[in-house]
Amino acid sequence: MTQQSAPQEHQQAKAAVEAPPSLYLVALYQLVGGAFALYGMLKVYGPGVPEYQLLARMSLCHSLPYAVLVTAGLLNALAGIVIGVGIFARWAWVRPLFVVMLVETTVLQLVDMKMAGPFEFLTVGAIFCVSLYVAFLLYRDPADRYFRNRWR
After folding, report:
1. Which of 21, 66, 91, 103 has a C-alpha 20 to 30 A away from that of 56?
2. Is 11 left (phi over 0), alpha (psi -120 to 50) or beta?
3. How confident is the model at residue 143 (pLDDT cuts 50, 70, 90)?
4. What percent of the chain has pLDDT over 90?
5. 113 exposed, middle or buried (CB, 10 Å; 0-12, 13-18, 19+)?
6. pLDDT tens readout for residues 103-132
7. Is the Cβ–Cβ distance between 26 and 146 less than 8 Å?
8. What are phi and psi of 113, to 5 degrees?
9. For the residues of 10-60, what is the DSSP string, one character each?
10. CA nearest 73: which of 53, 95, 45, 115?
């Protein structure tokens, strides 16, 4: 080996270990989004909300039962936090969890649209497109190398 090839191999090995910056953005997106979603679910549907307000909101805005809606929302928020932490911890199993969460969220949003107008459908479509791009970032080659190499 020449002296020039040794630094090049070191750079290639280092590049295989480092995550692309987009992966860190995905992790922060999941952490912050999961935390805000958890806070929002607890604020809107939590134990301190009067029952008449919950019943009014459920009858006006949602077609799913209260227990299904709150359970799905809490699990999605917690899954978002776990995915964000898992990206930093290099847990490869968070990638399929993200895809499952994407499909479940999209299906529940489409089923639960009561009195939905065009803006709601555009919102669901935009969220779906952003989530597909995030899934692409999680499964492309630099992220794949990052998750394969657990030791920094």
Report:
1. 103
2. alpha
3. confident
4. 32
5. middle
6. 998 888 888 877 677 888 898 899 899 999
7. no
8. -80, 95
9. HHHHHHHHSPPHHHHHHHHHHHHHHHHHHHHHHHHHSTTS-HHHHHHHHHH
10. 45
Which pair of structure tokens corresponds to residue 90?
């290099």
pLDDT(97) > 60: yes
Asked whether the beta carbons of 37 and 77 are under 8 A apart, the reply is yes
Question: What crossing angle do the helices spanning 66-89 and 94-111 adopt, rounded to 10°?
Answer: 150
Token representation of residue 150? 């657990």
Burial of 116 (0-12, 13-18, 19+ CB in 10 A): middle
**Which single residue is written with the structure tokens 């307000």?**
53
Distance in Å from the first CA to the final CA of the chain: 25
Nearest one of 108, 41, 112 to 81, comparing CA atoms: 41
